[in-house]
Design goal:
With 95 residues, the protein is mostly helical. 98% of the residues lie in helices and 0% in strands.
């Protein structure tokens, strides 16, 4: 009878251990699914941010080009003003 009692206790312990392991497995699966969902969300956010960064980089390149063109025009105007000033100085000296 002692062996039967010991066998019953071992079976109860094994059932408890098996139940505990199943609960742990379930919790781990839930956590893995949550982590997977978070990873997917983060990947989507990263993709959106990369897209926005590309758009902003394109806009920056356009603005830099416009800035260069404006600087070129400014240099042309400055050159014309210098030429006009020089002609004015010449005309004043000639008078």
């Amino acid at each position: 009878m002692s062996i039967e009692k010991t066998t019953d206790e071992i079976e109860k312990y094994l059932d408890y251990a098996n139940s505990y392991l199943n609960d742990l497995r379930g919790e781990i699966e839930e956590q893995l699914q949550e982590a997977s969902d978070q990873i997917s969300t983060l990947q989507n956010v990263i993709e959106e941010l990369e897209s926005e960064a590309e758009e902003k980089d394109t806009k920056l390149q356009e603005l830099m080009y416009e800035n260069s063109m404006l600087q070129l025009e400014l240099m042309e105007v400055a050159g014309q003003l210098i030429h006009m000033r020089h002609e004015l100085d010449i005309s004043r000296k000639g008078v």
